[in-house]
Every structure is written in C-alpha cells, then in structure tokens.
C-alpha cells in the first residue's frame, strides 16, 4: 500500500453508504429493476434520448443485452426503470426513465463506480433526473463500501461536451466535478483529403498478425500492461475482456514478439505477475494491438461510414518500436479495403503515451468531445 492510500480512512467509511435507497417520487412513476426482457424497450428509450441530445452515436440491442451477461453485475440491485402509470391493464406503462450503476471487478489501485441514466425529453423539468441521480450515487456508495478495497475511490458519470447544459449543471449540483476530457477523432480514408496510410517496418522478432482467438488472452495481458500508467485505467478481468459488443476481428491486428528476451523481461520490475507467469509457461507474447469495432448504426448519425479503433496499445517494454503504429496502420488498411470512408477512435486528452501527436501526424482531427465528472473519495 502506498503512502497515499495508507492515510485514507477505510472505504466503508469514506463511501458513506446509505442504509437504504429510495426510488424517485418525482413524476409519479412506478419503478422496478431492469430485466433481460426489457432490452428492446430500454434500447428504444436510450436511443430516443441520444437523438434528442444530438449525441454522436446510438446503441445496439447487442450492447444492451451484453449488460445482463456480466456475472459481476447484479441488475436487480444496480438498475432502475421508471414507467408512466399504466392504463390498468396490469402491464407497465411507457418507459420514461432509467438508471444503472456498475463497479468494474478488476480494479486494484483504485475502486470505481460508474453511473448512467436518462429521462425522456418530454418528462424533463419534473425533478426526475435529480432524484434518479441521487439514487445512482447512493447505490454507487453502497457498491464502493462493499468492495472492501481500501484504496482511492471514484464515482463517475460521463457527458458529451456539446450535450444539454442542464445535464452538466445537474452533475455539478450533485457534487460532481469535471475530472477528465476525451476527444473523438477521425481521418479520411478516401477522397482528396486522405493522406497515405504509412508503411511501418517492424524490427527483430516482431511480427504483425491478424487477431485470432488463441491470442486473445495474450492480448488482454498486453492491454493491462499497456494501460497501467494511464489515468483512470485498471486491469480487466477475463470476463470483462470478453464483453466486446461490436467487435470486428477482421479489422483487428496484433504485433507478436516471436522470440522475446524472456530472461530480461522476467528480471524487469515492470513485468507484471500475470505476464511473468505466461512467459514461464511459454505462452505467446503480444507486444502491441489494435482491436476494432464496427458500429454500422452510427454511420447515419455521423454522416459517413467508418471503422473504429476501440483500443490501441503497446506494452511498456516495447514503446518506441512502432508496434502500436504498425497495428493501427493495418487496421486503417482493413477499414479502407472494406470501403469505409474514415477511420475513427477516441483518446484521453491527457494520454501519457504521446498518442495525440501520433494521431495528428496521421491526419486524425477532433470530431466531438466528452468529459467525465466524478466524486473522489
């Protein structure tokens, strides 16, 4: 435990969890937890809100159904749907509000709980959103306290930079402050503004290969290593890693070291225990990766087709050897070969790896932005 965390009070005290949670009373809605059967109706409300707020994306049924797959989630306790009063048929009325809270299971050096929710545009101004956020925050405090992890803690919410100012004010009045900014970037793959995708030569025993299922666990280990020094990032468990709605394996590429210096890596204090165990077992070593996603439903929202680089990274021991650039370039070529008009990705504006400069040099420009508000505990 670091000096910083050793001075912290136990998480059960810092989180100050409420003994009970009270569903909102504003708006005269009836409330219950979300179930898998709600997925189509829930999706419809979420996308209606996204359109009303001019968000640069929509969601898919696959993404909503995936929420019910994670064993670390308890949707009976961590979700809430608000329905207008029914007409007496015994069925739920119209879904007009929703909330969900999640605590990622792999958190180690800090423990986090994230809140999501929304209210139908026609029902805003009734106080529903304020009370719903209070419920979410209370549930997040309960989840953090129950984690038993006596490390720094965070309750986070996200908002588009150009989203409703009322949403930003809602978060601020509830005690959340802006902590981080993110940029969505895109670059043309066709037309007069498209610059050539660079040819990247890899040195030594490094080889570019397509993503394959048998290398996916090695890729997870590479990702956890690559993002250890990124703000707000924590290791992903195997179950978290498996949740990848929209994943496009045909657009995803890895850089593998076919002859790693195992002794040097094992001797390095930067080599994490999971990687060390994999090296001792003779498992393959992924040095860098580009995992892409296909979000076809977003083409109409953005006004162009695109391939999306969902995550990109290089192991810390391999930085400076162009492994991430090689994987990214391979992904862009795959996008273009499938007729995509642009390549897109998002980046933390304070990314420590110099990613912004890399993307700018490749012709990526900002198309939209978002921010994270948080309560730090």
TrEMBL record:
<feature type="compositionally biased region" description="Low complexity">
    <location>
        <begin position="15"/>
        <end position="27"/>
    </location>
</feature>
<protein>
    <submittedName>
        <fullName>Ribosomal protein S18 acetylase RimI-like enzyme</fullName>
    </submittedName>
</protein>
<keyword id="KW-0012">Acyltransferase</keyword>
<feature type="domain" description="N-acetyltransferase">
    <location>
        <begin position="29"/>
        <end position="190"/>
    </location>
</feature>
<dbReference type="InterPro" id="IPR000182">
    <property type="entry name" value="GNAT_dom"/>
</dbReference>
<feature type="region of interest" description="Disordered">
    <location>
        <begin position="1"/>
        <end position="27"/>
    </location>
</feature>
<dbReference type="InterPro" id="IPR050680">
    <property type="entry name" value="YpeA/RimI_acetyltransf"/>
</dbReference>
<dbReference type="InterPro" id="IPR016181">
    <property type="entry name" value="Acyl_CoA_acyltransferase"/>
</dbReference>
<keyword id="KW-0808">Transferase</keyword>
<dbReference type="Pfam" id="PF13508">
    <property type="entry name" value="Acetyltransf_7"/>
</dbReference>
